[in-house]
Specification:
A hairpin with a 6-residue loop joins strand 15 and strand 16. This protein is of the alpha+beta class. It contains six helices and 17 strands. The protein has three domains: 57 residues, Uridine Diphospho-n-acetylenolpyruvylglucosamine Reductase, domain 2 (2-Layer Sandwich); 109 residues, Uridine Diphospho-n-acetylenolpyruvylglucosamine Reductase, domain 3 (2-Layer Sandwich), CATH 3.30.465; 81 residues, Alpha-Beta Complex (Uridine Diphospho-n-acetylenolpyruvylglucosamine Reductase, domain 1).
């Protein structure tokens, strides 16, 4: 099954082509040259991307089973947060204003500061089968999982923390309102990418209609009509300048998909 997806509307940064996407509704092998797209919240797509696959509605579900919560990888983080709050389940407060689908959120071990979604994961399901938490290599913004995630099982303990929920909401008030991929770069050890970018003069720095936000220097934003080439040029300029000034090689937190050869 296929459907047309206009990524200039679907992606969070509102940059990307209109292409046919392959919809996956069963656990199966995915060709290695296919690009797996979830909510497209941290992905920068070129005008000519590789073949794209997206999980279908069969993988959008939430099922509570005793002390565990089974969630399909195509389920939005916001939907899981609402379920957890309604059912008084702790550990899901981190999903407040965290965009994306659960598969991608877990795969990149998304979070804020020392809080990460991987801390409440029990196991994940891929084509190879179930992978228990102690076999998953969770670390900063990475799970070590190199396969497509179809389902995630979380711990489901009582005690949703309203104060923690409010704190995460307040911590994200400094995020820009313009279309964005979220944090552009990972924080280097013992430092912050935003600080390095700001001290390198990149707060508000723009090329064409893509810029680093005036509100937060580590957020790459689309000011309206921005392009892939403008975004890539600005990212590379920032990496070069930060390395020149501080000797730090910034690593992208977003996925910058390379152009395919025509």
């Amino acid at each position: 099954m296929q459907k047309i997806v206009d990524f200039s509307k679907y992606s969070s940064i509102k940059i990307g082509p209109k292409v046919r996407a392959n919809i996956v509704n069963q656990i199966c092998d995915i060709p290695k040259d296919w690009l797996i797209i979830g909510g497209c919240n941290n992905t920068l797509l070129p005008p000519n991307p590789p073949p794209i696959a997206m999980l279908g509605e069969e993988f959008s579900f939430i099922k509570k089973d005793g002390d565990f919560l089974h969630v399909g990888a195509a389920t939005s983080g916001g939907r899981v947060l609402s379920f957890a709050r309604k059912n008084n389940l702790k550990g899901f407060e981190i999903l407040q204003k965290l965009p994306g689908l659960i598969g991608g959120i877990v795969k990149m071990n998304a979070g804020l500061k020392e809080w990460e979604i991987g801390k409440i994961v029990k196991k994940v399901r891929t084509k190879s089968g179930w992978i228990e938490r102690d076999k998953i290599g969770f670390k900063y913004r990475d799970s070590g999982i190199d396969e497509l995630i179809f389902e995630v099982v979380f711990e489901a303990k009582s005690g949703f923390d309203e104060e923690l929920f409010k704190m995460f909401k307040n911590l994200r008030k400094n995020q820009p309102n313009e279309p964005s991929c979220g944090s552009c770069f990972k924080n280097p050890p013992n430092d912050f990418a935003g600080r390095l970018l700001e001290e390198s003069g990149f707060r508000g720095k723009r090329i064409g209609n893509v810029a680093f936000s005036q509100k937060h220097a580590n957020f790459l934003v689309n000011l309206g009509g921005g392009t892939y080439d403008e975004a890539v040029e600005l990212i590379e300029l920032a990496k070069d300048e930060v390395f020149k000034r501080f000797g730090v090689r910034l690593e992208e937190e977003i996925l910058v998909v390379k152009k395919t050869m025509i």
